[in-house]
Amino acid sequence: MSIARFLKRKAPSDESGYSEEPLAEPSAKRMKPTLPSCTFALGFHAPTFTVTPPSFSLNIHSPLSGKDIIDKDLDMVLYRPFLDSPRQLYNYLLESLPWYRVRYTVRGMTINTPRYTTVYGKDMMNGVDTAYQKKPRPIPPLLAALKDEVERVSGASFNFVLCNFYADGKDSISYHSDDESFLGPDPTIASMTLGGTRAFHMKHKTDRSVPVFKTDLRDADLLIMRGKTQACWEHSVPKRANVPPRINLTFRKAINVRGTNNYYRYNVGDGPMFRYVGGKMVETKPELPLADLLEKSAAP
Ligand SMILES: O=C(O)CCC(=O)C(=O)O
Ligand SMILES: [Fe+2]
């Protein structure tokens, strides 16, 4: 559904659960999903988004079966596909989410994050908002519904959804592991792909005799990384020529305030916000109405 079509609708008066401030920035037990196919009512309170959310079905693929990917210190399960008919979800997230291109400084060096990011959630300490450097944003109902399904399948629980958008092959994430202490020991991280296929590489941190693990991640894939995977391996999405755009959602559990502060700092940041309008990213402000944005996107 296009944003233009959303615009014609009025916001319901009870759409009060969510508003965005101009923000300055797990060994899992596998379970069978109890609902092989679910229809979600997709209430989605996007920031400053004064339109009624669309309603469409998200169908968990049935029968759902995961493929184990096991190597030295590596413990993963790949559900391919996790969802049937993911296209609407991809389009909706791309057009509804506020995106950021975060720039930050470490040891005097300016780093430009080479992809669009955004984040929702709050750690399990669940402090008052004033305890945080940036006000945590509740997970919108659509992403919360997806999170519920991912929790059901992975047996893990999550309180954060990190979103990446790789607009083209120049966008990437370099080798890293999601092993910060604020995730607790041996965190389970669930990673969902929507849209284009991208290469996904993994390497053992210390044992150079273990071959690099190379796969691709495809539309509607759900990769669950667990056990010692984060402690012992790094993963990356390398730059590529001529690849289609891709959204990645990662589901995680942060155990303390430090995790929340870290996630907002590096996935929202202090810079401008972008929206995907009329087929491209347009720099905007949270308060700018979508009609203005559409005009801006139409400008040459
Ligand atoms: O896009 C992906 O598949 C990986 C994303 C990732 O590793 C991260 O956000 O930490
Ligand atoms: Fe990661």
UniProtKB/TrEMBL annotation:
Annotated source species: Calocera cornea HHB12733
Compositional bias per record (Basic residues), positions renumbered to this chain: 1-10
Domain Fe2OG dioxygenase: from-to ranges: 157-255
Gene3D superfamilies with a match to the protein in the record: Alpha-ketoglutarate-dependent dioxygenase AlkB-like
Superkingdom assignment: Eukaryota
UniProt xrefs under PROSITE patterns: FE2OG_OXY (PS51471)
Listed GO MF terms: dioxygenase activity
Protein's GO biological process: DNA alkylation repair
Coiled coil: none
Name this protein carries in UniProt: Fe2OG dioxygenase domain-containing protein
Annotated region described as Disordered, given as residue ranges: 1-30
